[in-house]
Amino acid sequence: MARPPLLQLSGVSLGIGQDPLFRDLDLVIQPGDRLALVGRNGAGKSTLMRVLAGLVAPDTGGRVLSPGTGVAYLEQDPDFGPYETLHDFATAGLEASEHWRAEAAAEGLSLDLSIPAAAASGGEKRRAALARALSAEADLLLLDEPTNHLDIAAIEWLQQELSETRSAFVLISHDRAFLTALSRGTLWIDRGQVRRLDRGFDRFEDWRDKTWEEEDLARHKLDRKIKAEARWAVEGISARRKRNMGRVRALQDLRAERAAQIRRQGAADLQLESGPQSGRRVIEARGISKSYDSRAILKPFDLRILRGDRVAVVGPNGVGKTTLLKLLTGEIAPDTGTVEHGTKLAVAVFDQTRAALDPDATLWDSLTTDPEMSVSGQSDQVMVRGQPRHVVGYLKDFLFDESQARAPVRSLSGGEKARLLLARIMARETNLLVLDEPTNDLDIETLDLLQDVLGSYPGTVILVSHDRDFIDRVATTTVAMEGEGRATVYAGGWSDYRAQRGETPGRRPEPKPDPQPKPKPEPMPKPAPKPGLSFTDRHRLDALPAEIDRLTAEIGKLEQLLSDPDLFTREPVKFRKATEALSERAARLEAAEEEWLVLAERAEG
User: Fold this and answer.
1) pTM of the model as a whole
2) 535-603 belongs to which CATH class?
């Protein structure tokens, strides 16, 4: 006998002002459903989750919850007002004999529930809310960004818990690996429609792209039909006026249908322009250490970062990852050791706290008052990679509309603040990017674009992230901060690091004793090198053809510019810069082609 659905929405529509977030939505959640809820930032994912939770009433339609069905909802900003401690909040609604469930969840999330609620950080409150949701043992879990503020070990613990639960759940997350591991179905909010695919998130992108291709084909056919009918109306209507007014009305209906279609929002125009090439050695740290109040954050540590490296820093929350970034960039001084920077460094920093953004300033002022972007005497222009741009036009590149230009930064969502900070960074010519939690709050499409941009960026990248998939796709070196001041360097990305440690996903690694200095062990002899590529090398091999095509196109444009025989006498500075750029890109093209050949040969064994 089929079980009744847990929750059902019928004919639900909801909008803000005149803009619909979704319309005529029918949705059924069955026992055992494991759904990923995806869509662009601002598409209405969190609002739909609140409708499912019964916290927001739709404009039209109805919500039916099966009798006896328990629902637990994790919202992004829970209210801790009436609770003295995190324990009081996490165990609210539980019998005293059931408190152990919240306490066990808090242990898995590395959370001290005795912390006063008023003194808790945003991340601690978030984990307490997650412990509360998990301990409810509800029939349906509605989890809005459950991985935010979690370190990788906690994310893997949560992933293991959800993989074993009997509860149905709906997840919103930007963590691709998390969604791929857990989802069996996908809900996609796109321009007011909610589509469902009864396959996991790993099939989502192919489905989305096919949907868009079919949409483009249907729009093309409609445009052709309108054009043909319009031509008929102009050429033949006078002779057949009475007989064919129905056809004229049909043409009007076609035009109305075309006008009613909502065009897809374009992707953010993420671009990075490398400044002058840095020296081969970018940063060299020798024996650096740092302690606060007798607590060792970093014990003597060596690291050499060369031009073009992608270094990821990973570790539990509070272990000191941001401190290490500040030591490497010179923002703070080490207690012992030295940090030497290479020549010609042009640095841009993406701060996870968004401290570079004034919450009371407008988006317009955030760009035009930036000393590195302002254009002398022009209040409506910004300098973008050496060229003046109108501030509204540049904001549109990052998916902001004109009405937002004069809005305060505090009105933006987390994802919009991240895009605004990227807009500031990407306007500059840089050769060293320092990215502290760049993936927080960004939707998956923007994450993909950021990953592609970093893949073709000729400079150096140092990043902190808890996004395992992003680290795997970007990093060539991983620095693992393991607690008690220990930091170890591993080759490759997250998967390579875990393989070298021999760890099992979903478990926190046991603490290791502080290693004593000892000679490096001799490598074990191998009969022959194994063929194939690491995850990072495979991703690099896939990315190189696009990089080679881009460099070839840039070289073609520069050669065309330099073919002007009067350029040297007319604009000597431009001629010199173009010549230098041509030489630099030619060298990069040669290196990319050589790298592709080496990796391709290795891939073939």
Assistant:
1) 0.69
2) mainly alpha
